[in-house]
Amino acid sequence: MKYLFFDIECSDGKHICSFGYVLTDCNFVVLEKKDILINPEAIFHTGAWSKAKREKSEKDRGITLAYPKETFTSSPKFTEFYNEIKDLLTDADTKVIGFACDNDARFIMWATERYKLEFITYTLYDIQRAYREYKELTCQPALEKALEDFNVDVSEHVAHRSDEDAEVTMLVAKGLTERLGITLDELFEKYPSCQGRVEDGKIEFTRVEGSVCDGGRYTGTNLTRRNYKIFQSHIRKTKPALGKNLPLKGEKICFSTLFEDKHFSEMIVLIELISKNGGKCVTRAAEATIYVEIESTKVCRRLRVIDDRISRGKAVRKMNIDEFLAIFNITYADVLAMGEKFRLSHIGKILK
Q1: Which of 139, 171, 205 corresponds to the end of one domain?
Q2: pTM listed for this prediction
Q3: Tens digit of pLDDT for each residue in 192-243?
Q4: Strand order from edge to edge, sheet including 202-205
Q5: Domain of 310?
Q6: 18 and 154 housed in the same domain
Q7: Is residue 76 included in any domain, yes or no?
Q8: Nearest to 125 by CA among 35, 183, 200, 189
Q9: What separation, in Å, do the N-terminal and C-terminal C-alpha atoms of the chain show?
Q10: Residue range 128-164, pLDDT digits in tens
């Protein structure tokens, strides 16, 4: 058995600009290390969108990628590497491992949808979840915390270079297995909640009753029948804020079902953001003044209604997800992070 530790960097919190990995044996001996540079065909913006927010806080200034922008833009686009990445992720003799890798998996899904490619189906293991179980933490531990815990020296590593970050994840996994005195395979058996499945554009992690990754908390992302009731209840209970200069004052926002159906937690977050800025989230396209769409090979059932209203001269604006989030000076990665916090919170506490 081989072990593929991988990491992804994006130019803007959404579009992939590098896929890096290290391939090891069961003893953490590196067999291969590679950084695949990709032209994201998107803007390069790794910090907060608001200048005022960037100036107010150092952490909002963003990250510095390991290569100049020109190095990425002169590289081939994702379609050129699709088969190579697919082969790496689906090799039957390889286990795929990352740190907080549900986000990385989403970036790959977004790229496959964008370029009208087939979704990649594979199993992955999240070292962050395993470490969290080991420490019995109720919050998501940062990579730096784990590095400090296992005395991992990363002074020679290049930050935000995907293959280097993948190797750092490997070193954390090595530290955790050595601390516990077990193998990687035994680690995954000990903490089954770190195992996830990526299939048909969805990511589902194993739910284990009593684990800190579950513990009575919601962990799903799809708009199931149960979640739909919560979703509709939250829309009804959340009222638009009052104020003169709110950016969404009087607006009714409707999302593409292709986003809404697969991003339950993120939608709860967005409903609240919209209301705090004077708007109202709606599920009927006939009511919408703003329609938020996503790139997809599938057609949203609401789009025909939106296009018909626009053709009849109705005041309806179309925005992609990035344009819409720019209203709040946040990126898609920010929404994913907030959605993860929601998943780790008890639904009763949020919706009571």
Answers
A1: 205
A2: 0.68
A3: 989 999 998 888 888 765 565 654 333 456 666 667 777 888 888 899 999 8
A4: 30-37, 16-24, 2-10, 94-98, 122-126, 195-199, 202-205
A5: 225-351
A6: yes
A7: yes
A8: 189
A9: 48
A10: 999 988 887 767 788 999 999 999 999 999 989 999 9
